[in-house]
Amino acid sequence: MGQILVDRFEVVRRIGEGGMAVVYLGRELETGTERALKVLAPQLADDAKAVERLRREAELAMQLDHPNVCPILHVGETSEGFLFLVMPFLEGESLAEALDARGSFDRAEGLPLLVDIARGLAHAHRVHILHRDLKPENVMLVPAADCPHGRRAVVMDFGLAKHMDAGAEVQKLTATGIVLGTPEFMSPEQVRGQPLDDRSDLYGVGVLAFELFTGELPFKGRTPQDQMIARLKSTPMTMRSIKPDFPPALEAVILRTLAAEPDQRYPTVGAFVEALSQADPSIRSKP
Hints:
Shape: globular
Order of helices and strands: EEEEHEEEHHEEEEHHHHHH
Number of helices: 9
Number of domains: 2
Mean pLDDT: 85
Low-confidence stretches: 165-179
Strand order of the largest sheet: 1-2-3-4-6-5
CATH class of the largest domain: Mainly Alpha
Distance between the termini: 41 Å
Largest sheet: 6 strands, antiparallel
Structural class: alpha+beta
CATH superfamily of the largest domain: Transferase(Phosphotransferase) domain 1
Helix content: 25-40%
Number of strands: 11
């Protein structure tokens, strides 16, 4: 630790690791501001596809500017030639950590977080960016005094993101027929390696919402792969079979996002938020 990157950022300590990168707490030398530094894992430094995917994450996320999306502030290379991204350091916990600790959220506390997540994705979709890997691990709950229950949900990690109008090289990197994503949260069309659009991300929102309010995933299976296969062959459980007091109108909205066929879901994430607001007037439908 103590390494200085591009004469601007000091590496303070390691705080996490994913499949492609190691995340460090960093400090911006000029301002003293804490930052998150996401450095490509050393074992992937010679993997041209991994390098391109992380670089693409930076290029995409730098287009995003929304309170429910974590932006990329800078992209650079270490002295060893490893690509790294600089992001705001967000205090708080991931949604996955919160669910592990408490099991599920009640409607009053969980609904504002669900709307936050949807609005962050809707912003990405407006600039033609799909996330493709929405899951509790990729959502941070950060302190926010002006938000219900004192915190805001922020969508993280656009590492599998794809521009809807991507050029040939990016299309090749994420080619049809190659399954990328997290099995438990993937839409049926993503499982099949078919073309994706807004409604595919919306399916991930539905799986996340189901777990948020029930503490369980909508499809049973001994392994993530079993659950992935189940969504191709069966319908999801009902939320009220797990939480009998869950409002039927809200359940209907969430279950529609889990329709096997994209045409049976809401056409956009914004339409989903509007439907939530009609089912529960406490939600403001504005993006």
